[in-house]
Amino acid sequence: MAVSLPPTLGLSSAPDEIQHPHIKFSEWKFKLFRVRSFEKAPENAQAEKQDSSKGKSSLEQSPAVLDKAGGQKPALTQPALKPHPKFLKKSRDDRKARDKAMHQANLRHLCRICGNPFKADGHNRRYPVHGPVDGKTQVLLRKKEKRATSWPDLIAKVFRIDVKADVDSIHPTEFCHNCWSFMHRKFSSAPCEAYSPRNATMEWSSHTTSCDICHTARQGLKRKGHQPSAQLSKKLRTVIDRAREVRRRKRRAQARINNKELMKKIANCSKIHLSTQLLAVDFPAHFVKSISCQICEHILADPVETSCKHVFCRICILRCLKVMGSYCPSCRYPCFPTDLESPVKSFLSILNTLMVKCPAKECNEEVSLEKYNHHVSSHKESKETFVHINKGGRPRQHLLSLTRRAQKHRLRELKLQVKAFADKEEGGDVKSVCLTLFLLALRARNEHRQADELEAIMRGRGSGLQPAVCLAIRVNTFLSCSQYHKMYRTVKAITGRQIFQPLHALRTAEKALLPGYHPFEWQP
Q: I need a surface site. Which of 74, 155, 256, 272 has the fewest CB within 10 A?
């Protein structure tokens, strides 16, 4: 039995017929592993060590063949497995479909108009973009005689956004309660201003690899699910808690400032209340704060005290209670208009004795707050005595015979007075003030028919058809009195407007058309 010797004994130079095949195989195997171990890179050492065991078993099963030129075995490389293109395309399509579904799921949580998430509302109230309006909005639109009956028409009218061509994979299908409230305030005649949820139109685009919507949602979920490590040191945890408390205080301070600015806009009393800068004496800051309203920060005018001992101007607190709710604007304690009381007399006496500067030009007088209104009215009376003097001495023409430019010039002073009254008492609604004045003038002159028509127009019902026109309709359509009365009641009940006149108005018009109604005397 032949014994295989190691190649270091010098037998490798013997002829092939003397050498045993095991000796040749052993020499080749040693050279193979020695060369590969010296040539391999350090970073691939571990991978090559694993491959060597596989190569050894395969070499022992198959005969070895040396390279003729160099006598070394070329490196064996295993070809990488490539999947079929059909399966690659299928996996790519599945990934695209999954990303598209996730994108649509993220769109369901966003508002179509402003882009804000629905969870910001707190109650998660949402409304469909397509379809008819809800009952409350329908009642409001019918009251204001608006033709829009669906959400797309209403959104296009208010926000100038066309949602009829929306695609579900690009655009959200619902909008938030904030946009719904903005549309209600836009059509209702509430005294408060309507604030738009966005300054610019929200742009929506199809899903891409760098989609902002999916990226924001993924970041939000990761940030929400991230929990602080339990191995944090006590000092680091204290720093984090302090930073969180500072951020919370900043948010509260900013919310308080925004709330104060909103209350100032609601009060809207800069033209009727006096600023604290008109005080003749430079009082300390805490004293100025005690005599000023905590809503508008002006000098208290007609002050009232709440049950929580805070003092406000009467008109400011009433407007805030009406718009923002029944609570004190300073401490949010429950407060109602019936709880308002007059402050103590000592406080009122101190307030009335404060000296203020007259804001009129060329008047440097300092008067007490109690006599301020009388002093300002004396300025107005002296101004009116000079304004209404007819310097030309020509006879004044009738107002209706003048041109429009001359009418504006003559009514300028009255227009300014009416505008000042409307700003002070009616929230700036000059039209309603003028119509009400005209209505009172018609009632005073016993022109009740014209007054009724004007009142119907003011209430949004319209004056309807004239009685003579209704009589002609009844005669030409061969309607009896009962048939016409049934039609009159049906139209009035459905539309809520008196388009046709009642039967007694038709009888009065018929009497005026019959012979002998108007007095006439023929003289040859």
A: 74
